[in-house]
Design goal:
Layout (H helix, E strand, L loop, with lengths): L8 E8 L2 H11 L3 E8 L2 E10 L8 E6 L12 E9 L2 H13 L4 E5 L6 E5 L5 E6 L25 E9 L2 H11 L3 E7 L5 E6 L8 E6 L13 E8 L2 H13 L8 E2 L3 E7 L5 E9 L24 H7 L10
Parallel strand pairs: 1-4, 5-8, 9-12, 13-16
Antiparallel strand pairs: 1-13, 2-3, 3-4, 5-9, 6-7, 7-8, 10-11, 11-12, 14-15, 15-16
């Protein structure tokens, strides 16, 4: 089948138990823009918050489902074990080292263990995050940081960087990524625990097109909760291309969702053999179909097919004020 390569990372979706604290951390501490306040389309009782660059360009979205009763995460294998966020250069990492300390966020200092300058830290719920420098790296273009962020634009987060997949059987996940999804291995490095990490890339490559894959058969399977990642999505150019991928994934006998309408983009979901949930998502239409650029994320947005339920949906949600200036 004539398929175009996946273009890179599209978004990462994670879990939080507290939408308000989550909003404060990701906008005021990390300086991301809330580009869409909506609901989980599979469970409209809970928020789905999208943080990104200035307009939610594909490849910049870090999203959260609010699950108020979510328990703690018991870290382990068969998981998306860290999410990277891109910054412009090594000088930006030095800014972030000081900024996080000023904000009371503990971090592990600047490291070069992945072959690039990185800075690892956790959010208030234990979400595993890594800032990665784009200095000297070509590949998938980054986004444009929001100029109203409390973080200076020159040091702002430019989008998603590599996701780390920790799995019990590396060959199974690698086979899906390379043989089916078209990723290519580019290099390897050693983790802090001395395990090989395989770096796979798609599209134009670089930080916005990478998956890092580590085998940890010695760990228990992760029990997800607040501070864990639900799924990772990869970029497909448009709906026609996504429908080709849907047919292809079906031919490869991977159980999948089939085509799913998400209004802001179109999707297809499937699990790789170690149980990690992958999504393929289109680059458009984007987040400005129901809100102007200037006021993205300030009101509760609902896709048209939920609009007739607005009163009932809003009644079930705890109010969340996202109309703030910095």
């Amino acid at each position: 089948m004539d398929l175009k390569p996946l273009k890179g990372l599209h978004h990462v979706s994670a879990l939080t138990a507290d939408a308000k604290k989550n909003y404060d951390f990701y906008t005021k501490t990390l300086g991301l823009r809330l580009v869409k306040k909506t609901v989980n389309q599979d469970d409209t009782k809970v928020y789905h918050l999208f943080y990104a660059d200035e307009r939610g360009n594909p490849g910049t979205d870090l999203t959260f489902f609010e699950i108020p009763n979510a328990g703690r995460t018991y870290y382990g294998t068969n998981s998306i074990s860290s999410t990277s966020l891109r910054v412009h250069n090594d000088e930006s990492l030095r800014f972030w080292k000081n900024w996080l300390a000023e904000q009371g966020v503990r971090h592990d200092g600047i490291s070069h263990k992945t072959g690039r300058a990185t800075l690892s830290f956790h959010d208030f719920e234990g979400q595993r995050l890594v800032l990665v420098s784009d200095e000297g790296i070509a590949g998938v273009a980054g986004g444009i940081p929001w100029d109203k962020s409390p973080v200076p634009v020159e040091h702002g987060i430019r989008g998603l960087g590599p996701v780390m997949l920790t799995v019990s059987r590396v060959e199974s996940t690698a086979a899906v990524l390379t043989d089916i999804m078209g990723f290519r291995e580019t290099r390897r490095y050693q983790s802090d625990d001395g395990h090989d990490v395989f770096v796979l890339e798609t599209g134009e490559g670089g930080t916005g097109g990478e998956v890092h894959l580590e085998e940890r058969a010695d760990l228990p399977v992760e029990r997800p909760g607040r501070g864990s990642v639900h799924h990772v999505a990869f970029r497909v150019e448009n709906e026609d291309e996504l429908r080709k991928w849907a047919e292809y994934i079906k031919e490869k006998r991977l159980p999948n969702s089939g085509f799913v309408e998400r209004y802001y983009f179109k999707s297809l979901y499937f699990r790789e053999p170690n149980g990690i949930l992958f999504e393929l998502a289109t680059d458009g239409p984007g987040f400005e179909g129901d809100e102007p650029f200037e006021s993205l994320g300030e009101r509760l947005s609902l896709p048209p097919y939920f609009e007739n339920q607005r009163d009932a949906i809003e009644a079930r949600l705890k109010p969340l004020d996202t109309n703030e200036s910095y």
